[in-house]
User: What shape does this take?
Amino acid sequence: MEYTDVVRRRRMVRNYEAGRAVDRATLDGLLELAIRAPSAGFSQGWHFLVLDEPAAISRFWEATTDPDESPDSWLRGLQSAPSLILAMSDKQAYLDRYAQDDKGWTDRDEVHWPIPYWDVDTGMASMLILLGAVDAGLACCFFGVPAEGHDGVHKAFDIPDELRIVGVISLGYPAPDRRSPSLRRGRRQLADVVSYQRYS
Amino acid sequence: MEYTDVVRRRRMVRNYEAGRAVDRATLDGLLELAIRAPSAGFSQGWHFLVLDEPAAISRFWEATTDPDESPDSWLRGLQSAPSLILAMSDKQAYLDRYAQDDKGWTDRDEVHWPIPYWDVDTGMASMLILLGAVDAGLACCFFGVPAEGHDGVHKAFDIPDELRIVGVISLGYPAPDRRSPSLRRGRRQLADVVSYQRYS
Assistant: This one.
């Protein structure tokens, strides 16, 4: 599909066709796009954990939701996704990369990093997956793990402490869903968010 | 151009055709793509400052480089870009958005935000510009402002304190350039950065 069409068609979908899995070749194709994201110093400090078996998917939702609360329709929809990709960033890979001779920040001090490029670059990689999903005829959503859920997910999947879960991409074939109420806020237009030569 | 071709062709280019500007319609087209990036709660906490006049471009480089050091070939190449887009994030817009009734984090406490989605979302918006540049036949590079340069850039362009410069996108028509030495590190392959069902 034409790039600009992919961008215009992309939206967050929170309901997926029951019983229709995403095959492994399609998932690998999306991940092949992800690893072409740029990264500071070509650090590539990221890891993608794919969950596409029902037991693993259940383990994820158990670690991130309260069993005493019945899921709302939004969560039930997300839980119908047959595949999840956890996009994780590895800060240490960046600090180590920039301690090498050609960069020279051997103190590994985070003061050099006013912007956490490990998270930004992993976000860019996630964007490539989200667009790739549209291009492949899939539906997807990108969402964060609640602050109190990170430890549980790390434990449930043996994720090393140094990896941070930047976001989760749910993937499946689209089923009817309702628009996010947040969209009622309206899109900010260029005149609201762009200025030329000087901030205004 | 097909989406997957755009992703495969994208690379950081650090040298631009002399005297060939990027017209305003093309820049606006790229920004129209950027504002279609997803954002947590549809917060859209971002701002894009476009510099496409020589005086503004010079002001940027004066604020971010040491006048006593002569620029290396990499920096001279970047400085040939006729357009720069400063992609900035606005954390306060997210804290305010999530203090609204439907979210309810009225304490505006950053403990709710283990991941700085203001920076991640602005990174995603930047990714859409980088891909759009390739689609439009332009060359581009994404780079960070050095830690010690942020204050100077804020002053030079009247940027409010609450905005953070996530990155700068240089844009122009491609001129011959040399590959970044960082690429010699090699791309990490799927087997290195992907695991299934459980981290490994």
About this structure: Chain B has one domain: 3-193.
